[in-house]
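Data availability (excerpt). The following record was deposited with the supplementary files.
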Amino acid sequence: MGLILYKWLLPAFFAFHPFYVSVTEIEHVKAKNEVQVSCRIFADDLENVLKKESKLPLDIIHPANKVQMDSLIAGYINKHLFLNVDGKAIKLTYLGYKIEEEAAWCFLVAPDVTPFKQVKVKDDILYSEHPNQINMIHVIRDGVRKSNKLDNPKAAISVSF
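Predicted structure:
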């Protein structure tokens, strides 16, 4: 009986206590000598923060103005995601986004980055929106993946290879 009650309560618990997670993957692509970054952010959360910051009515899934939406997303990510490779800050260039199910996948690149020994990541995406925000960080170099979890307010990690 207790197990049945537990299974019944679990979905109700998550309905009243949503979770907030983004995933950022940072990969060094040796053949191109660049760092490629993808951020998976719940589309509704990203849309809400962009609405608050821009004070504009927005629809991230069906934007009235795609160029404007890209500009808002690029500005937001560039204020909340920073990479430092072997002691040097690198500039990320926003490439665009796509919607897949409930998520917005945002893509960035940093050219001319040689294989690194250490990456420092600062990621406080959506921290202002959700006190319980979790940002998962995956750093990949030469096929080796190292993962970390940032719980708001912790926003920085260092990864060594």
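Summary of structural features: Strands lie at 21-29, 34-42, 81-85, 88-90, 93-100, 103-110, 118-123, 134-141, 144-151, 156-160.
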